[in-house]
Design a protein that fits this description.
Layout lengths: L2 H8 L9 H24 L3 E8 L9 E4 L4 E4 L5 E6 L4 E6 L2 E7 L2 H6 L1 E5 L21 H7 L23 H9 L5 E2 L2 E2 L4 H8 L1 H24 L2 H6 L8 H9 L4 H5 L4 H18 L1
Parallel strand pairs: 1-7
Antiparallel strand pairs: 1-4, 2-3, 2-5, 5-6, 8-9
Helix pairs in contact: 5-7
């Protein structure tokens, strides 16, 4: 039998000739399966990554978080928190007008921790020197502030207002207070509080309590970051620069971390960090 006959026999199962329309339909089916497999591979294994951005001035609201690999994006809330879907080795870009753009690759450690803490650096938009007449300003705020006779700013403390020294509640604390608010009495009328009952049943109150506790933990961690520059952790404690956030999280989950940081004693905190760094290097 000729080769062409063998080919025809192979393409004619059960004695039925293979027509062009059947080939076309089969090719379309194969292409459809390949497309579905590609889409499935992109979405399968995606994990929700929570995180927080922070800076020295604290103004981190509406920071853009872009996953350039999957082209998904998120925006931070007023406290700097965000949530975005990621895969291993995805690239995240953090950008805002007042900060330098920061790029981070999702490593296996980051993916496993399910949380990242990102420090943003302020963009240097100051001019070298500007002379403005007739006020003879140079553009250097340190020198110009000494020349200008500016009255102190008006604050609640300077006006002697009541509760001027009361620390304002964070957004999470305000939401928790609202969710747990009891009955309200106006004269002889007392309202029945359904909100606390509904929030307790739905689990919202429990979730807000966890968020308040988490905010306090992050505040302590950021306080430690302000106490000591990154170079100290790298050079003295021998913590790799790309592992600093992981090391601080390792300290944060320790029960002794909160009481020691709340003392505001830098020497005591440093002694704790040195001991914790030895354990961290041993386990990693």
């Amino acid at each position: 039998m000729h080769k062409t006959g063998q080919l025809s026999l192979c393409l004619m199962p059960m004695g039925i000739p293979l027509k062009g329309s059947i080939i076309s339909r089969n090719l379309s089916l194969v292409c459809l399966l390949l497309v579905n497999t590609a889409v499935f591979s992109q979405t399968f294994g995606e994990k929700k990554m929570e995180g927080k951005v922070y800076s020295s001035d604290g103004d981190v609201a509406a920071t853009h978080v872009l996953n350039t690999t999957t082209r998904k994006a998120a925006i931070t809330d007023v406290e700097g928190f965000f949530t975005i879907g990621v895969h291993l080795n995805d690239t995240l870009v953090f950008s805002a007008v007042q900060y330098r753009k920061k790029t981070m690759v999702v490593t296996a450690d980051i993916l496993e921790s399910k949380f990242i803490s990102v420090a943003l650096e302020e963009a240097n938009i100051a001019l070298d020197e500007v002379v403005v007449t007739p006020y003879n300003l140079t553009g250097d705020l340190t020198r110009d502030m000494k020349r200008l006779n500016i009255p102190p700013p008006v604050t609640a403390s300077s006006l002697g207002l009541p509760n001027a020294h009361v620390k304002p509640l964070s957004q999470s604390e305000r939401l928790l207070r609202e969710a747990s608010m009891g009955p309200i009495t106006l004269g002889t009328f007392t309202s029945i509080p359904f909100n606390p009952l509904i929030n307790a049943i739905s689990g919202r109150t429990k979730m807000l309590k966890k968020r308040v506790a988490r905010d306090k933990d992050y505040a302590r961690t950021e306080r430690v970051k302000r106490f000591y520059p990154d170079s100290i952790f790298v050079q003295v404690l021998k913590i790799p620069e790309d592992k600093l956030d992981d090391f601080l999280y390792f300290c944060e989950i320790d029960a002794a971390f909160a009481p020691i940081v709340d003392t505001h004693d830098k020497l005591k905190i440093w002694d704790y960090l040195k001991g914790r760094s030895v354990l961290y290097r041993r386990e990693n």
